[in-house]
Amino acid sequence: MRDPGAREELRARNEALRVQIDGMLEDLHRRSDLLSRAQSEVAALRVEARTPDGLATVTVDSAGAVVDVDLAPEAFARSTPSRLGEAIAAAARDSAATARRRVQDLMAPVSQAGVDLPDLPDLIPGAPSLRNLVPAAPEVAVADGDSVESGWEPGASILRGADQ
């Protein structure tokens, strides 16, 4: 390649590509930092919901799993086991729904970061995509009256199996 014009054009294209890749690497580092911070916040997330009568408080983690149930000392004196169980289940559903919304809010900046930049496969055929660095959280809804994974049914005893 002895043509100075072609050589200069090749240098200019290489420099433009280098600038694009440097920008993408900066974006990747920024998204990685955002992801790390968001993951830490999600891991530490706890959401509480109190039953309307104030007799129980249910705490769930970021996945909506119940991690604590706190009963007021007078819970069994002021309520029936059936009503208390239904209220606890409703509080668990409420706190799980709130946890899902908070996780989505915490992860939103990560999924929105760098949307306008070209993706790596746009520049280098066959390269892995950076766009789907963060997978979307699955949407899980538990409506009133639905069974939960443990097999518990609304209205059934929360002490099922204790007599065995």
UniProtKB/TrEMBL annotation:
SUPFAM superfamilies: YbaB-like. Residues 143-164 are annotated as: Disordered. Pfam families: YbaB_DNA_bd. Coiled coil: none annotated. Transmembrane segments: none annotated. This is YbaB/EbfC family nucleoid-associated protein. It comes from Rhodococcus oryzae.
